[in-house]
Design a protein that fits this description.
Blueprint: H1 9-27, E1 34-41, E2 50-57, E3 62-67, H2 76-85
Antiparallel strand pairs: 1-2, 2-3
Helix pairs in contact: 1-2
The structure holds zinc ion.
Zinc ion (ZN) binds at residues 42, 44, 47, 51, 68.
């Protein structure tokens, strides 16, 4: 599996904005909220080498998800499943 290394930079940027759109569709959007999508390496033995990190930032909370896929391989189903793996933004923590 070395297909992702053949992706062009433009392709990677497209994947990032596509994933971001799915995150916004899944968790909602507001003026105070920022969604960050990035790709990083996982160094844990036995893990796929590439990891997509999604962070949802609000003034009160930061929710972070990791998907063990390269950014270009993340699907909308992966984003839909995030809500089952982690709680939505915790309103209780708001200041
Ligand atoms: Zn890992």
């Amino acid at each position: 599996m070395k297909g992702f290394s053949a992706l062009s930079r433009r392709g990677d940027a497209g994947a990032a904005s596509r994933v971001k759109d799915w995150v916004v569709a899944r968790f909602g959007d507001s003026a105070e909220q920022a969604v960050l999508v990035s790709e990083t390496q996982c160094l844990t033995a036995g893990c796929p080498p590439t990891l997509t990190v999604i962070a949802i930032l609000t003034p009160c909370a930061c929710v972070r998800f990791q998907i063990h896929k390269s950014l270009g391989d993340v699907t909308q189903d992966d984003i839909s499943a995030l809500g089952h793996a982690a709680p939505l933004l915790p309103e209780d923590l708001c200041c």
